[in-house]
Design goal:
Number of helices of chain A: 13
Helix content of chain A: over 70%
Radius of gyration of chain A: 26 Å
Number of strands of chain A: 2
Strand content of chain A: under 5%
Shape of chain B: globular
Shape of chain A: globular
Strand order of the largest sheet of chain A: 1-2
Structural class of chain B: mainly alpha
Order of helices and strands of chain B: HHHHHHHHHHHHHH
Number of helices of chain B: 14
Structural class of chain A: mainly alpha
Number of strands of chain B: 0
Largest interface: A-B, 100 and 93 residues
Helix content of chain B: over 70%
Strand content of chain B: under 5%
Distance between the termini of chain A: 42 Å
Oligomer: heterodimer
Chain lengths: ~300, ~290
C-alpha cells in the first residue's frame, strides 16, 4: 500500500515537474515578448513622463512632475480633454441608444435577420482609414453626397462646409464614430435579448401591456447590465480614438476636433516633446483605468455572485 | 397528404405566422437603417467605377458605368502592389504568431499546474488595461534602438502576443476534458505533445475566431505602422491609402478605387468567418 502511495506521489511529482518544464517552454516566447514590448515600455513611459527630452539629443533632464503640471496648465491639452469628452458622450448616447432600438427591431423579425445584421456590422470590420476617406468625400463641400441630398431637399448646407465648420466638424466625427461602432453594440444587445425569456412578454401581453410598455418595463431593465457594459466600453474606446480624426479633420478646424490621442501623437512625433507626450499618455491611462475599474466593480462582482 | 405537401403547407403557415403584415413597418425601419449603413459603401463603389469626367453627375449610389481602368490607374499611381505585399506579410506574421503563441500560453494557463501561474496571469490581465497610447513612444524608441525602423520585424514582432487571444483560448481550453490528456500521456505522449495532439485539433473554432480578430486588427492597423516606417516601400495598405489621399485627394474616382482595394480583404474575411466572429462578440455581453 505504501509502495503504491509512494509510486503514486512520485508519479504526481514527476507530473508536476513535467508540467513546470512544459510551462516554461509554452510560456517562454510569450513572457519574453511581453516583458520587452509591454512591461518594459510601461515602466519606460512612466520614466519618460518625468523627463524633458526630444528623443534624439544627449541632454535628457529630470523635471519631476513638471510635464504633468505643464499639460494641465495648457489650454491646448484642456481643449483636447473637452473635445474627447464631448466625442465620448456623443458616440455613447447615439451608439448605445440607436443600437438598442435596432436590436429590438431585429429581434422582432424572423426573415432577413442575418442579412440585416451583416449590413449593420460591415462598418465595424472595415478599415477606419478607408471609412474616414469615404466620409470625407461624402461630406465634401458642394459635390459631397450630403450636400447633394440636402440641396435636392431645398436645404442650404452650412458655410464653411461640414468638416471645415467649427460648429459642425465634431458632430460629423461623432456621426462617423457612431456609424462605425453601431453594429458591434447591436450584436451584443441581440445576444442579451435572446436571454430574456419569452414568457415575460407573454405575461405582460396578457396583462394588456402594449409594445412600448413591454419595451420600457421588460426589455430596458433586463438589459441594463449590458447597457452599462456598452457605455463603459464605448467611453474607453472614445478616449483612444485616433485614425478617424487623423484622416477626417486632423484636429481642425481651429482645434475643435483635436482629440487627446491626436494631441499625443503630434506632441511626440511632430514636436518631439516626449516627456509631455508620455504624460498625456498617462492621463489617458488614468481615465481608461477608472472606467475599467468601474466595469470590473459592476461586472466582476456579479460574476462572483453567480 | 404527401410529405412535400405537408412541408409546403407547414412552410405556408410558418410564412404566414412569421411575416404578419404588422411586421412590415419594422422591416421598413430596419431597411432604412441598413440603407444608411450601406450608402457610404455604395457611394465609394459607384465613384470607383465612374469615368473621371462623370465624377459629379448622377447616379451617385448605383454603378452604371464600369471604368475598371480606375483600378489599374490607381494601382499604377501608387505602389499598391507593394502596400498589399507589405500588409499581407505583416498580417500573416501577426495572425500566425498570435494564434500559435496565444494557444501555447493558454494551454499553460488552462491545463498545467505550476507555481506563480495566478500571479503571471493577473499580470497579463493588468497590463491589458494599459492603452496602447501609453507604450507607443517607448515602443518606438525600442524599435529605433534595435535599428528595426522600416523593417518587418518592427511591424510584426511587438504585436505577436495578444492578451485577448490568451483569454479567449484559455476559456476554451478549460472546457476540453482533462481525461483526454491523461489518456494520451498513458500512451506515451509528452506533456507538450498533448497540446499538439489533443488541444490544438480540438480547438478549431476558437483558433478560427482568434485568427479572424488578429487578421482584421493587423490589416486595419494604422498608428503603429505610421510610427515605425518612413520608407515608402515599407508602407502598409492603410498607410499607403492615407498618403494616396494626400496626393490624389482631388481625383475622387482613383481615390475610391484605392479605397475599395483596401477594404475588400477585410470584408471578405468577415463574410467568411462571420459566424465565429459574431458569436464571440456576442459572448462579451453575456459575461456580465
Amino acid at each position: 500500500m505504501s509502495l503504491f502511495r509512494n509510486a503514486h506521489s512520485r508519479w504526481q511529482r514527476a507530473n508536476r515537474l513535467g508540467d513546470l518544464n512544459t510551462a516554461l517552454i509554452a510560456l517562454a516566447p510569450v513572457v519574453l515578448l511581453f516583458a520587452i514590448f509591454n512591461i518594459y515600455p510601461i515602466v519606460y513611459s512612466g520614466y519618460l513622463s518625468l523627463m524633458k527630452w526630444d528623443g534624439l539629443s544627449a541632454d535628457r533632464t529630470f523635471v519631476g512632475l513638471d510635464n504633468y503640471q505643464e499639460i494641465f496648465n495648457s489650454p491646448i491639452f484642456l481643449n483636447s480633454l473637452i473635445v474627447t469628452a464631448k466625442y465620448a458622450i456623443g458616440v455613447t448616447i447615439l451608439g448605445v441608444g440607436l443600437a438598442l432600438i435596432v436590436a429590438v427591431l431585429l429581434n422582432s423579425v424572423v426573415r432577413g435577420r442575418t442579412l440585416y445584421r451583416t449590413l449593420y456590422f460591415i462598418p465595424v470590420v472595415t478599415s477606419t482609414i478607408a471609412i474616414a476617406i469615404v466620409w470625407r468625400l461624402l461630406m465634401a463641400p458642394g459635390f459631397g453626397y450630403a450636400d447633394i441630398v440636402l440641396r435636392n431637399m431645398g436645404i442650404t448646407p452650412p458655410t464653411p462646409s461640414w468638416l471645415r465648420n467649427p460648429t459642425w466638424a465634431l458632430y460629423i466625427v461623432i456621426l462617423v464614430g457612431t456609424w462605425k461602432r453601431l453594429g458591434f453594440n447591436i450584436v451584443i444587445y441581440m445576444a442579451g435579448l435572446q436571454g430574456i425569456p419569452g414568457e415575460y412578454y407573454d405575461a405582460a401581453k396578457v396583462d394588456g401591456a402594449g409594445p412600448f410598455a413591454r419595451f420600457r418595463y421588460i426589455t430596458v431593465p433586463l438589459l441594463s447590465q449590458i447597457t452599462l457594459l456598452l457605455v463603459i466600453m464605448s467611453i474607453i474606446d472614445a478616449f483612444l480614438i485616433f485614425d478617424v480624426v487623423y484622416v477626417l479633420t486632423d484636429g481642425g478646424p481651429i482645434g475643435t476636433t483635436e482629440v487627446i490621442g491626436l494631441l499625443l501623437y503630434r506632441q511626440a512625433f511632430r514636436y518631439f516633446d516626449l516627456g509631455s507626450a508620455s504624460a498625456i499618455g498617462w492621463v489617458i491611462f488614468a481615465i481608461v483605468f477608472m472606467a475599467t475599474l468601474l466595469q470590473w466593480r459592476l461586472f466582476g462582482l456579479k460574476e462572483n455572485r453567480t | 397528404m404527401s410529405v412535400s405537401e405537408r412541408i409546403s403547407s407547414s412552410a405556408a403557415t410558418s410564412f404566414a405566422r412569421h411575416i404578419p403584415w404588422s411586421s412590415l413597418p419594422i422591416h421598413g425601419l430596419l431597411l432604412a437603417g441598413a440603407v444608411v449603413m450601406i450608402v457610404p459603401f455604395m457611394w465609394m463603389l459607384t465613384l470607383s467605377l465612374k469615368p473621371a469626367e462623370l465624377t459629379h453627375t448622377e447616379p451617385y449610389l448605383i454603378p452604371t458605368t464600369f471604368q475598371w481602368s480606375n483600378y489599374t490607374e490607381a494601382w499604377a499611381a501608387a505602389s499598391f502592389e507593394r502596400y498589399y505585399l507589405n500588409s499581407a506579410i505583416m498580417t500573416l506574421g501577426i495572425t500566425v504568431g498570435q494564434v500559435i503563441f496565444s494557444s501555447l500560453a493558454a494551454f499553460a494557463f488552462a491545463r498545467l499546474e505550476f507555481r506563480g501561474k495566478e500571479v503571471l496571469f493577473l499580470l497579463f490581465l493588468g497590463t491589458m488595461m494599459v492603452p496602447f497610447h501609453v507604450i507607443l513612444i517607448p515602443s518606438y524608441l525600442i524599435i529605433r534602438n534595435l535599428g528595426w525602423t522600416d523593417t518587418f520585424q518592427a511591424l510584426i514582432i511587438p504585436r505577436l502576443i495578444s492578451a485577448f487571444g490568451i483569454f479567449l483560448l484559455r476559456q476554451y481550453y478549460h472546457n476540453i476534458p482533462r481525461e483526454l490528456d491523461e489518456a494520451a500521456m498513458m500512451d506515451g505522449c509528452s506533456r507538450l505533445g498533448t497540446w499538439w495532439r489533443i488541444v490544438l485539433p480540438l480547438s478549431g473554432p476558437a483558433l478560427a475566431t482568434l485568427a479572424i480578430f488578429a487578421f482584421l486588427f493587423a490589416w486595419n492597423d494604422f498608428l503603429w505602422p505610421l510610427v515605425v516606417t518612413n520608407d515608402p516601400d515599407m508602407r502598409t495598405v492603410q498607410l499607403g491609402l492615407a498618403m494616396f489621399q494626400g496626393r490624389y485627394g482631388t481625383q475622387w474616382t482613383l481615390l475610391m478605387a484605392g479605397t475599395v482595394s483596401a477594404t475588400v480583404p477585410t470584408i471578405l474575411a468577415f463574410l467568411v468567418g462571420q459566424r465565429w466572429f459574431i458569436a464571440s462578440i456576442a459572448q462579451t455581453g453575456l459575461k456580465g
